[in-house]
Structure formats: structure tokens, C-alpha cells
């Protein structure tokens, strides 16, 4: 937990700023970019620039720019479709009352900044930290009262409920991966293809492959209808004013999937941080985002009782394991870590996933 944060880019922020200024001059001649910053918590899969826009006709002052991953930085995902993310955010803003930042400009030409990007309004507020995780002592969410965390939990589950209920399911079908079968089948098949890409020419993970086998053996008898899934559905991707969500971020994993795919990810990603915290000798937040409470709250809000949640939480842990393996191999690429004889050791939560496969976790 104290090792250096993995390298996420080889880009020069100052050069990006100069190129951004030239690009903006085409949209708002004479506009000035001020306060350009690269957040210290920049993501592993794409980059964010924050800046202020000074111009009398500027649609907003505070802006955030999402830039597709640097190809030279051993990318986490094989494809970064910024137009897809831009479209999802625009549609969510139009079709639901889920708070998403206002999207402004989309640039699909890689020439201006070296990769496609889009600009959106910057959301002001606070976000539960990932490093160190909010389950550790010393941050605003850990220091909150039980009642305040309960409010944040309820409001965050409400985001999922409203997204799933309000967004027209038919309009989410453009997110379906190519292939045959149900939305869940296509989603899992796409994850298999992603895993194959991650381990191409490298050591495969016996644990990940056993988890895929477990999914096949425990496939839901009734998958349920597909909805628009947020994808990276976790509180670390929500900006809060007090304890109420004011902006839902990071839509690159949005999908047309059963509701439980998002719920499983929400529950599991909290468990990931909680288990790490306990492993390092702190109590964490054991009463927060409990699976039973999340399921109950979601059912109250939607009338849909979540089902097959052991399948979906294991699927979330499996998907996270593939991402973690890719990040670890990227660290090895940059000389930050050595690859052990057992590649499963590269997966930070391998004990959790193994327990899920054995049926001894919950």
C-alpha cells in the first residue's frame, strides 16, 4: 500500500497545455487557458486535465478534459473510444436526472493532443479517495459519522436505481459488444477477449481462468432484462457536496447489461478496499456498503430484488483481477516491479477471488 503509484503517462503536461491552447483557439478565438493542472489521482486508463477557460462567450469557466490513454504508457485497455463516452454522458444528461457533468466539445482527431479527447464542465466537490483508500483513517469519509455515511450510501445507491430505471433500455443497445447471445453473455465473452489480450505472450493466470470456469458452472437461470450500466459504479467516481452526489464520473466502462453487473461492482470495489485495510491492521468501515444493505436499498427504490449476487460479485472481482494483472504487467514493463513465478501473485486481491471461487468468501 506504500509502494509508488504506477506510472500512468509519458506525456509532458506543459506541452499538453500549449497544444490545448492552440486547439481551443479554433473554438473560442482569443480564449485563455489558466490554472492548468494534472490531478495527482489521475486515472490508470485515461488522463484528466483541469483548467479554467477565460472568454466572454465561454460556456463554463471550470473545465475538465478527458484524454485517451497515452499509447506509450502500456495502456490498460486495448481501445479508448472517447466518442462513446461522450455520447453516453450526453444521453444520461438528457434522459435521466442522474447528475453528470455537462459535456462540451469532442475531438476525435488525435493530432491536436496526441489522442482523442473531450471537454466537460468541471464538477466541484469532494471525492472519496482511492490512495490512501477512504477505508483508511485520515480522510473526510472515514471521519464522518455513521449517519452521514449512511446518507452517502443511500444517495449513491439511488444513483444506480435512477440510472437503471430512467434510461430507456433500448437506447443502451449501441453499447452491446459484437457477438451472439444475451447481453450478459456478450459482456462476459468480451471480458474473456480482454483477458486474452492482457496475457498475450505473457504468463496466464490460473486463478482468473478458474474464475471464468466458475461463472460457466453458476450461470444465472434468469439473467433479467438489460439496462444502461454505468460500468465503473463506485463511490470513488462520484463527486459529493456534503454527502449528496453532484456529479457521476468515469463512463468508459458503460455497458448494456443486467442491473446486477453494476450492483456487484459497487459491492465488490468497496470490499476490495475494506479487505486491504483490514489486512493492514485497521478496522476500516465494516458497516458501510454492506452487500445486504445495498441490495435492500436498491430493491426498495426500484421494486427489483437483486438476484444471483454471488455470481455478480465474483464477476466483478474477476474483471478487477484482469485489470490489476494488466496494471502489474505494465509496472513490470516500466521496471517498477518484478514478475513472480506465480502470476496470480500480481493480483492484489487474489486471496479474495480464490475464496469466492471456493465458495468460502461470503
UniProtKB/TrEMBL annotation:
Gene3D superfamilies: 3.90.1200.10, Phosphorylase Kinase, domain 1 (3.30.200.20). It comes from the Bacteria. It comes from Streptomyces zaomyceticus. It holds the Pfam family APH. Residues 81-276 form the Aminoglycoside phosphotransferase domain. This is Phosphotransferase family protein.
Amino acid at each position: 500500500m506504500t509502494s509508488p503509484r504506477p506510472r500512468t503517462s509519458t506525456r509532458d503536461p506543459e506541452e499538453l497545455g500549449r497544444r490545448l491552447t492552440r486547439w481551443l483557439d479554433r473554438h473560442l478565438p482569443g480564449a485563455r487557458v489558466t490554472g492548468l493542472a494534472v490531478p495527482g489521482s489521475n486515472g490508470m486508463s485515461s488522463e484528466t486535465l483541469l483548467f479554467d477557460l477565460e472568454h466572454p462567450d465561454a460556456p463554463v469557466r471550470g473545465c475538465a478534459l478527458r484524454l485517451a490513454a497515452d499509447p506509450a504508457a502500456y495502456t490498460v485497455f486495448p481501445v479508448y473510444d472517447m466518442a462513446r463516452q461522450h455520447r453516453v454522458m450526453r444521453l444520461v444528461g438528457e434522459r435521466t436526472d442522474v447528475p453528470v457533468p455537462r459535456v462540451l466539445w469532442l475531438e476525435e482527431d488525435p493530432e491536436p493532443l496526441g489522442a482523442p479527447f473531450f471537454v466537460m464542465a468541471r464538477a466541484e466537490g469532494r471525492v472519496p479517495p482511492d490512495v490512501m483508500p477512504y477505508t483508511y483513517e485520515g480522510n473526510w469519509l472515514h471521519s464522518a459519522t455513521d449517519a452521514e455515511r449512511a446518507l452517502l450510501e443511500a444517495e449513491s445507491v439511488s444513483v444506480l436505481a435512477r440510472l437503471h430505471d430512467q434510461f430507456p433500455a433500448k437506447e443502451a443497445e449501441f453499447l452491446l459488444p459484437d457477438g451472439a447471445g444475451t447481453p450478459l453473455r456478450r459482456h462476459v465473452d468480451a471480458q474473456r477477449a480482454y483477458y486474452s489480450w492482457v496475457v498475450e505472450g505473457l504468463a496466464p493466470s490460473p486463478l482468473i481462468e478458474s474464475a471464468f470456469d466458475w461463472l460457466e458452472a453458476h450461470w444465472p437461470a434468469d439473467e433479467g432484462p438489460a439496462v444502461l450500466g454505468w460500468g465503473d459504479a463506485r463511490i470513488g467516481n462520484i463527486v459529493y457536496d456534503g454527502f449528496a452526489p453532484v456529479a457521476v464520473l468515469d463512463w468508459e466502462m458503460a455497458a448494456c447489461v443486467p442491473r446486477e453487473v453494476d450492483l456487484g461492482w459497487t459491492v465488490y470495489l468497496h470490499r476490495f478496499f475494506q479487505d486491504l485495510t483490514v489486512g493492514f491492521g485497521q478496522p476500516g468501515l465494516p458497516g458501510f456498503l454492506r452487500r445486504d444493505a445495498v441490495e435492500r436499498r436498491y430493491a426498495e427504490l426500484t421494486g427489483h430484488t437483486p438476484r444471483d449476487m454471488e455470481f455478480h460479485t465474483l464477476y466483478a472481482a474477476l474483471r478487477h483481477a484482469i485489470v490489476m494483472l494488466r496494471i502489474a504487467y505494465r509496472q513490470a514493463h516500466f521496471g517498477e516491479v518484478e514478475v513472480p513465478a506465480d502470476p496470480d501473485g500480481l493480483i492484489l486481491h487474489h486471496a479474495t477471488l480464490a475464496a469466492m471461487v471456493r465458495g468460502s468468501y461470503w
